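Practice problem 4.
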């Protein structure tokens, strides 16, 4: 969730950036993720974080799943603002 990179990408797209070079690669939770439902939110975060998710069941991107990664999904759920950032990412157009 690199907010500064996303803001810079928005500046490039709108013509406000002086330098237009940026490698921007991201993955979002599915649109069907219910932010009010803990299990749905965990599933969405596991998809968005891919093989860096530390969920004990591994990643959801590969078969067989990769072992758990370094991003603490439980900590993300406990951190203030996670739902706001995910909602904001859904309204971004590019």
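Answer key:
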């Amino acid at each position: 969730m690199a907010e500064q990179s996303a803001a810079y990408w928005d500046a490039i797209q709108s013509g406000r950036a002086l330098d237009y070079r940026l490698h921007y690669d991201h993955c979002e939770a599915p649109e069907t993720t219910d932010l009010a439902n803990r299990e749905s939110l965990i599933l969405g975060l596991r998809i968005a974080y891919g093989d860096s998710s530390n969920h004990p069941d591994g990643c959801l991107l590969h078969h067989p799943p990769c072992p758990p990664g370094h991003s603490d999904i439980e900590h993300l759920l406990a951190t203030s603002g996670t739902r706001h950032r995910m909602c904001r990412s859904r309204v971004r157009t590019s």
